[in-house]
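Notebook B, p. 112. Complex prediction, attempt 2.
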Amino acid sequence: MPENHVARLAQRPKGEVKDSDFDIREEAIADPGDGEFRVRSQYVSLDPAMRGWMNEGKSYVPPVGIGEVMRGYAAGTVEASRNPKFSEGDTVTGLFGVQTHALSDGKGVAHADTSLAPLQTWVGGLGMPGLTAYYGLLKVAEAKAGETVVVSAASGAVGQVVGQIARLTGCRAVGIAGGPDKCRALTEDFGFDAAVDYKAGNLFADLRTAAPDGIDVDFENVGGDIFDTVLAQMNPFGRVAVCGLISMYNATELPPGPKNLRNVLVMRLRIQGFIVFDFARHNSETLKTLGGWYKDGKLKFKEDVREGGIAAFPATLRQLYTGGNFGKLILKL
Amino acid sequence: MPENHVARLAQRPKGEVKDSDFDIREEAIADPGDGEFRVRSQYVSLDPAMRGWMNEGKSYVPPVGIGEVMRGYAAGTVEASRNPKFSEGDTVTGLFGVQTHALSDGKGVAHADTSLAPLQTWVGGLGMPGLTAYYGLLKVAEAKAGETVVVSAASGAVGQVVGQIARLTGCRAVGIAGGPDKCRALTEDFGFDAAVDYKAGNLFADLRTAAPDGIDVDFENVGGDIFDTVLAQMNPFGRVAVCGLISMYNATELPPGPKNLRNVLVMRLRIQGFIVFDFARHNSETLKTLGGWYKDGKLKFKEDVREGGIAAFPATLRQLYTGGNFGKLILKL
């Protein structure tokens, strides 16, 4: 009889996530109760936000409790159901956690149409990353045709979509990424107008070359020195959508913030943080737009699917914070 | 024959402003040309922004050139006119510079109704500071009834008005100021709900006591550690209007920015810089609102009028950056 492979939070990590922060176990598989269904997960999304979910303290969602299944967004197939809205064989996505089998009452679960896109894409470009890119760029930063958009961690799951939507909106899209391979992919595969390699050591000058008219919109995924450098080149009335601050997530002490804060005043910038969940009421409409672009070949998603099952989860998660992945990081179960 | 006493910029200051950064001179008084008038200035406004105007580099207005009259907002009386809109004896306000006599073509000059308020108030609460407070609180931060508003440098020219408008809007008004005298004035004279003395050394805890439900709006005048502490106590979807960063203005190196930047993301904060000039099209309407409140006794302005004429300008300006003033700092000529 198959068992549920599950990653439970063993302790709160200090700094970088270690294998010992998780308890990887095999457990008995439970049967669905009335109104529930059981899903066999095939893909788990690895998201930068996971690090924050492991910390104690006030945030936009409660932290994962010690001993609880690690929170995670996943896609899979319904294998038993006592819920009339979900039938055996349905492909679905939801917060099923980092485990091979999950029970759900259907709340927050969406059907994934695998005739439109393969299942893994429903935790990728057509999952949270695509929605995050869309809302941050168009609803938070309000990018408009003719403007210059810069996105950091541009080859990541969200960044690659930001650049493509910027282009579809009529903006100049500039991506910041680490290393020549990622930068080449930005311009050649994803159609960015320019790419800047922050590892080359000339970020300020290279960014100026890539965005000669200054920066109108910054889609910020990184924070730290990269954010500070972008801030120094913002145009009057520029907007920053703060989507992530991945450079800070493993910090055990709070690092200093941006030195170029004076530019917020002088240039009348608007810096606004957002969480994809805040816009959930627009999801079905937005997925129609994104799905349409994907179907028409106007939007591509690069996924970085790793093998190894639940046991590989801690090591795979660490890749996110060291730039070890290229594209949306997904663990295949 | 009277002469024009004038402060010209002698050199760009490094760090704190020194007397030798200005050339204080007596010069011949010129007669107005066609379309011009001459004003005898009686009050010059001392504004934190002056320090930025003395620096080289890109900003929202060009820097004052070496050898030029120092830029300044002033109120005075027309003493000779060849401009049909301004007659001898009219009381007016405008960017007449730091000098006793100025020529003007009338651009950006407003009549000051001294039956409504004394002339000095037209460079104070009914001048740039009042307008700045109004726009920052209501148009940038969009404070709404029932919210908690915190303002730093609260006993300053802008801060004292921010707190009073917050109260008139139905908000809880919390002021941060230095020392027990200034704090007492905030609650007793200006009607703030609470005042916090940052010099007492317990800013985090004292602020928590003063704003027990968290902070919805921060009207930021100071920056640095005070801003960082406020940022740590902001509520979800809070707004920060960045009006000034006076703690940074004399810095020769950029100080580190706020460490609590993560809260921008987690709490979905909006931080927005603004300059009073951006809202100039609303000035006459806004001055009617502010003037009405002033006339009805709902709005008070504390002015700190210094003697000593133009020669006292550099020393008086320094007071602004050391907390040596209490209320709107004005130099009487």
